[in-house]
Structures are given as structure tokens and as C-alpha cells.
User: What shape does this take?
Amino acid sequence: MKIIIASTLVFLIATGVALADDLSYEVNGLEKPAEIIIDEWGVPHIYADTHYDAFFVQGFNAARDRLWQIDTWRRRGLGQLSEVFGEQYLRQDRATRLFLFRGDMYREWLAYGSDAKKIAQSFTSGINAYVDLLDNHPDLLPPEFLLLNYRPSQWDAEDVVRIRGHGLWSNVGREVARAQIVCQSDLETASYWQSLQPAWTTKVPDGLDPCLVPADVLDNYYLAKAPVRFEQPALALADGFVESFDRSLGSNNWVVAPSRTATGRPILADDPHRTHAVPSLRYIAHLVAPGLNVIGAGEPALPGISIGHNERIAFGLTIFPIDQEDLYVYEKDGDGYRYQDNTVPFTTINESVPVRGSAGAEVELKFTRHGPVVYETEELAFAVRAAWLEPGMAPYFGSVEYMRASNWREFLAALNRWGAPSENQVFADTDGNIGYKPAGLFPRRNGWDGLLPVPGDGRYEWQGFFDMDVLPVEFNPERGFTGTANSMNLPDDYPIARYPMGFEWNSGWRYKRLWQVLERQDRHSLADASALQRDYRSLLALEVIRLIPEKLNGPGVELLRNWNGELGADSSAGALFAIWYYRHLRPSLEKALLPKAPPLVAGMDSLGVLRLMTEERSQDAIAMSLVSAYAETRHLLGEDPAAWRWGDLHQIRFQHPLQFLAGDELADLMQYDSYPRGGSGNTTNNTGFSASNMLVSAGASYRQVIDVGNWDAATMTNSPGQSGDPRSPFYDNLLKGWAEEESFPLLYSREKVLEHEVQRIILQPK
Assistant: This one.
């Protein structure tokens, strides 16, 4: 039995059940009494007597469990880190301010729905009510604020939508990387680094010299998206860069029709893949109020639920990579830039940035007609045009509309408003219907494809945006299932030349594995869905091994050839394959491709690796890389291959970002256990990692499996826990089960919630 002090509460943890005294607070901003019932897995079930009180209580509860996280998210997103952390964050603040939404708020709010502003106001009022509560309950203040010696801030409703840098944006970085490769070699070489799908031949835009695009041209862009670094803050830029090129980020989702399920109802599954963090990116909540009964996961700093279900429909998302960014290159002329044979002045905004320990700093933000200027030389300027700076593009906020839909028609209508990030949505309802629809703001480029930077002189303009109906759609497909995994899933007859949405997809191994399994299951069950989310079969590994030249042999080659591709934590061949592919084979092939150039950004994609393995110039690299990989594996894991274990190298090690500042007692509470993991970024059980250390860095941030209509049968996982407060029993309560491939109930009916209640919080209007 373990006793943990959590705020003013004492939680008794025994046999996995947490007990606590009930609490009651009076708060400003609430219309009628409301309650939060917390179940034994840390999921808050919010019951409110008015529609918008539900969002107020959601904000209050998000602050209760994740206050330090969401306060940091707000400061990072608004460019206000220097105010509390000091001058070393000033550069990041300036970069962030370049990418704030600065448009008309009237059009901004209406872009999401008629009551989006009211929802955001209610949500942020709830956060502020909890912050106000700390004056009389200082023991509720999360310890991180004490470690860093500052107080949480009040929120404005506009904060929710003005912040844009937390979306999964990446194309403009690929434009620059492609330009670098073209400068060093040619477009054909660049096609190995990132395969273009559907089959597509790009060209260098007229007027662009790729060699004039500096390698560091997007430093401000990466810094604007970067997480906050408390230890070695100078590395934030590198973090933003790495995440932008992480090929393992993405998601899986699928839905199976009643005719192919064991339950006779649709089964919908979703597991979004993101960089692992403490606290978790996802937060599970349940909102019940007049006109609202929705449960699932969202991001703790945003109102609503983006992945889950209501009383009638279930929904789940993955990234659908519409190209929503472009880098523009301008010829400077005095204090302006050349555009359509004229000189246009830069738009300049000067802002004062409060800086802790000083009088503050003035920063200059410069913009062109296309967007923020991210880099300048004496002769050139570079600006990013981003669709996500248009009205209605706050990441994931659009879910407040579709989560309240009750049928396919209403769901599609809500997706017509969806802006960013561009997503694949799967759908199911209690009538037995299933569907699939991608959504996102789709720029119209006439005569160019967006795959390289372009001159900003007026020749390469977006001609507005395409309607959502040009994107594919499926409703009750004959095959009886549908799903996505960030890979190229356009229909064979899709008119890509007319609608060139983008060509840079995930390589498709997770998608192929999903289809491989679902096609052969005519009675797909909840257990099957959970197993598929945890599947470690690597189709990439099997294909790479198939291409090892027949003439090669040796103990390492034989170990790989006799392997079934199950990249489990106990796999010896899996350990050898991962070391070979990521540390030896791919770098060797890159060197064969570009012998005089530095390593490729993010590494060559797997389709490029396979393509290069079939070529004569690669045969020596394949042979030598197998020898060196076998030697390194023996060095790391011992002389006996039978004792090698992939999980001895490939582990999850969550770490609180402030643990290095904490005293022994708090540091012990912050500490997470480590667990061996199987898989890779190319298995459906996505466990992305860096080749430098093999530790798991990305993967399923949340999982759900839903028996549509039998809502209490739904299951979920979240990692490492629901709460961000190290003193809470829900800080790491889901980690062991998540790491060991378990699931937990996602309770929906009040009857079941009450059976598993461990704490109740009553909120009264003041």
C-alpha cells in the first residue's frame, strides 16, 4: 500500500483503486451547479446543467489536472516565455510572434461555427476560475510553478485560436531540403530522399536558383514550433527541426461495418501518433450537458473532444498531408521587395516583450504580402505562406462542431469548416453506417506543385482554395471497412493533376499492414482491433531483407532471412535489423546516393531505400553495412545472438522536464519507470525512435477502440497518465498498462461511471 499526498487530498492506492474525499468549490462564471466525477483511471466525467457550463467545467478541470502544462503551452504559443523564464527565451518568443494569427476575429470565430466564441469564452473562464482558486488554496498550485518561481496567468478566449504553432506542419521544410539536394545534385536524386506519390515529376520553378536558399533559412519557423526547453534551452531549435522531419509521426484509424464485425455493430479504432511528452499531449474527458454527451481525447488546452464519440456517432482522425505551406524568395529593393515590377514595402510590427530580470526588449516583426519574413540576406528575403494563418485554422479547434453531429450529413457539414491540420476522419453511427472523409484547407496552385520554394515576384500565387468536395469520400463502401495511416490512399482514378493537394506521404507500411489484416477478418472483434493497434509485424523489414543479394551470407544474414518480421521487444533478429537498417544500411545508401554531401535531412525515406537497394551502385554498401551492423549488435548486446533483445535497446523512458531542478522527494514523485518496447515507426504499433539512441520518442499518444452503440464496451489507453501533477495518483497510472499492451475502460453511462467513481468535485456558482 502506497500513500501519496496530492494537494490537500490523501489518496489511498490499494489494488489499483484510488479513494479520495469529495471536494466543493464556489467559482465565478458558472451559471448552475455542476460536478466532476473522476473514475479509477483518472478520467473526469463532467455533468453540467447548461451547454456552455460543460466547457467552463472542462477548462476548470484541465487546469486542475494540467495547469502547468497548459500555462506553458499558452506562454510558448503567444511568445511570452521571456517574461517568466528570462532573456534566453527571447529569440523563441520573437519567432513565435511571427506566426501568431493576426487577422480579423469576427471572421475567425465564425469560421468554426456559430457558437465557437462562446465555447472558447466558457472554457477559458473555467481555467481562470481555477487560477483564482489558488489564492485561497495555495496548496493546489502545481510544484513546477514553485520550482520556477512564477505564477500561472489568466487566459483570454482569443488565446485558444490565435496560437497556431502546435499543428503538424512540415511541407515548407521539405521544400528547403529538396532545394538543398537539387543544389548538390538534381531532382532525380531528391526523389530518393522523398518519394512522390502518386507518381509525379516536379521541376525547378522558373526564376528559382536552389543554391540561393540557405540551409538555415527556416530556423525561425522551427523555433516557432519548438517545445519549451528548460534544460539546455538553446536546443529548442533542434527539437523543432527534428519533430518537423520525424517520419514516425502520424496516426492509424479504421472503421469496420456491422456486416464484418463480431458484434454486429460498427467498430471504430484510432490511435494518433505524436512525440511523447510529460505531461501527455492527450487528455481524456467526458462532457455531459443539455445537447451534449461526448467522450474521448483532445488536447488539454483546447475545448471539446477531437477523437471519441457522442450518443450517436464515433469519430477518429489521422493526418492527411495536404500541402498547406510555401516558401517565397524575394529580391530586395531598398526597404521593400520586388513584386510585379514594383517595389512593395515590407510591413513591420514592433512589439515590446517583457523579459524577466530586465526592462524588456523591443522586437521587430517583418511581413510580406505572403506571410512572415523568416530570413534575410543583403539581397534576398524569405517568407513563409501558411494556410494555417488563415481564419478558421486553429489546430483541432474545429472539433467543437463535428463532435456535436448526430449523423453523416451533419458530420460532413462540420468537416466543410475544418481547416487544420488537414485530416483523414473515419466515422460510424448507431444506425450501422460507416464513412471516411479527409478535410483541410486546400490551396489552389495553378501551374506549379508547391514542392520547391518559389520566387515571390507574383508569378506563383495561390488562386484561392478548393472546395472540400474535390477530396475523396467513402460512405458504406462495399468492402465493408475503411481506414487510413497517413500514406497515399487516394483512389487510383483521382485527378491529381487537376487537384495537386500534395505528394509527400508516409511510406505506407502501417497502412499496408492495416489493409492486410482487415481484408482477411470477416468477423472483426474488439480484441482484433486492440491487437492490430499493438501489432509489431514489420512489412518494411521483410521487404528490405528480401532485397539482400542472394550471394551474401553469414550469421547476420541467416538470422534475418529466418525471421518472420515480428519486431517484438524479445526479438533478436529485430534488434539486428533495427541496428542494420537505421544505423548502417540507410546512411551507407545515402552516401552512395550523394557521396560528397552531408547526411540527408531526416534520412532517406524507406521507398527510396528499397529503390536504391536494387541498383548496382549500392551492392557494396549493402554488404559492408551488414558486416558492421552485426559487429555493433554483438558489441551492444553480447556475443550470443540468441540472447539479443530489441527491447534492451528500444525502451520508453518518460522524463519530467523539470526533474533536474527538483529536490529528492519531488524528484522521486516525478520519476517514471522504464519499459522495453517492440516495434518501430513503420509498425502499426508505432514506436518511433532516433537512430542515435534507439529510445522510443514517438508513438500512440492515445488509443481508442469503440463498439459503436455499445458505448460502455469502449476501451482506451493514454500515456503516461491523466494528470500532469507529480503528486497525483493519476500522474503515471496508465503507463504500465500502456507499455505492456493493455487497455482500460472508456466508461460512458452514468451507471457505469458511478460504479467506478473515486472522487467527486462539486462546483457551485459564486
Observations:
- The first helix runs from residue 51 to 78.
- The first strand starts at residue 2 and ends at 6.
- The CA atoms of residues 585 and 625 lie 5 Å apart.
